[in-house]
Amino acid sequence: MTMHDDSNLQLLERDLTALAAPREDDERLRLALRDQLAATLPGRPRTRSRPRRRSIRHPLGAAAVVAAAAAAAAVALVGTGGSDGPSIASAAIVHHTLRAMTPPANAILHTQVVGVQNGVTVVGETWQETTPPYASRGLKGSPGHLGEFADNGTTSFEYDPTTNTIQEQPDSSHPTFADPVAQVRQELASGQAEETGMVTIGGASLYKIDLPHGLVGYFGMADYLPRYLNDPQRDGSMVRLRVAAYQYLAMTPANRALLSITAQHPRARIVTGGGAAGK
Amino acid sequence: MNANALAGARPMRARPGDPDAELVAAARADPREFLALYDRYFDRVLGYARLRIRDRATCEDVTSRVFTAALEQLGRFRGEGSFAGWLFQIARNAVRDVQRQRVTEPLCDERVAGDPSPEERVLALERAHELHALIRRLRPEQQHLLALRYGAGLPYEEIAAIVGSAPATVRVRVHRILEELRLRFP
Q1: Which residue ranges of chain B lie beneath pLDDT 50?
Q2: Which residues on chain A are in Cβ contact (under 8 Å) with B186?
Q3: CA A130 from chain center: how many Å?
Q4: pLDDT tens across B42-96, in order?
């Protein structure tokens, strides 16, 4: 602390004001908390409405989307008041997890999820633009048998590695950002996500967050990003999805190329489909 | 969620001069309108918490708790005082709760905006930590006043309305707190 002149309290006032000075990520926090409040309101109005648009296909299919969505729901800020609610520490961890999973604007969200479906290892990997036109590219399938698709907002693409062909289809119904966090913010009314402890998986210390409907998420203690999702099945079994990648990439030319199927396969033959059918 | 119960809330007494009266009335009629109050007060509540609490995560947690509680309890807000006064009383209670529970606050990654060099940043952090420690040694009502003034950034007139004193009295009290702080920190 600096010496304060007896005749002048301005330095002290300046230091006091600095304690509460705005931070870089205040706006992100404001929006995150706002969404959580909105999700608890009757009618759950969309605070940042987007027109209804087609969804980007998720590499692991609907089940994985549900699992990821539920996991994201788990990171909703829960009510911390009252003796029946989770502890402040628990709520803070859940809160920080939500913040970590709130994508920044003008970035690319890169995810890679690995799971086992019917005894077969399935990998899903996506790169998604976090702002319009929400261009995306994804890979899905078992190792060695990956399908690849993309969407740049006006055209959808599918790559066939057996013929080295890209099938493109004009499509004017703009895609949405298939961010599971955005999807499940509308489902946060339950507010029942709760951090229930710390576990070690694969040598990594993780926060365990119990989610509504039996799902469990495991999140990094340093970055609060998802590492594993336990998804209970109807037959009583549990499927564990490993989140091999969950990162935000800067919108550099090199990273932007990750969104383009033609950039990834510059020698592929391009076949243009007819019509402007949606997906 | 108590927001559903807002439709059955008791009639609110109109308080002349409360700049939030219309927004509060709208929120009581339709809880979705509460978001306008949230937008208006988010920065001030966060600033209030930051002045009184060093730990960044706890500040954010307190801010969230304040608005969650305000939304849930808006039906019980009778309008006898200002909305701001009511809201900052919730904030005051939330801070009190966390200060009771936390014997020590963890070190945090507080940052002071505009520090151009690592050395200056370290010095600013030290200043901030020491100042926070001093603030914690003040009486709760003193902390409250200081946070309203320098955390929430409210003018003396608004603080006076919140605490139920005359602006001149508030100004004197804040000045005395500053003097006390300075004496403890030569």
Answers
A1: 1-15, 102-116
A2: 3
A3: 10
A4: 999 999 999 999 888 888 889 998 999 999 889 888 777 889 999 999 999 999 9
Question: Of A155, A159, A150, A153, which is closest to residue A132 (Cα–Cα)?
Answer: A153
0.80 surpassed by pTM: no
- Supply the Cα-derived Rg of chain A in whole angstroms: 22
A–B interface: beta-carbon pairs under 8 A? 131
3-state secondary structure string, chain B?
Answer: CHHHHHHHCCCCCCCCCCCCHHHHHHHHHCHHHHHHHHHHHHHHHHHHHHHHCCCHHHHHHHHHHHHHHHHHHHHHCCCCCCHHHHHHHHHHHHHHHHHHHCCCCCCCCCCCCCCCCHHHHHHHHHHHHHHHHHHHHCCHHHHHHHHHHHHCCCCHHHHHHHHCCCHHHHHHHHHHHHHHHHHHCC
Per-residue pLDDT reduced to its tens digit, A101-158 = 777 889 998 988 888 766 778 888 889 998 888 889 988 887 777 889 898 888 889 9
Binding-site residues on chain A for chain B (CB distance < 8 A): 1-4, 6, 9, 12-13, 15-24, 26, 29-30, 33-34, 36-38, 40-43, 45, 47, 77, 79-81, 88, 91-92, 95-96, 189
Domain ranges of chain B: 18-184
Fold of A61-272: outer membrane lipoprotein receptor (LolB), chain A (2.50.20)
ipTM higher than the 0.90 cut: no
d(CA A189, CA B47): 27
Do B54 and B104 meet the contact criterion of CB atoms below 8 Å apart?
Answer: no
- Where do the domains of chain A lie? 61-272
B64 to A18: CB separation less than 8 angstroms, yes or no: no
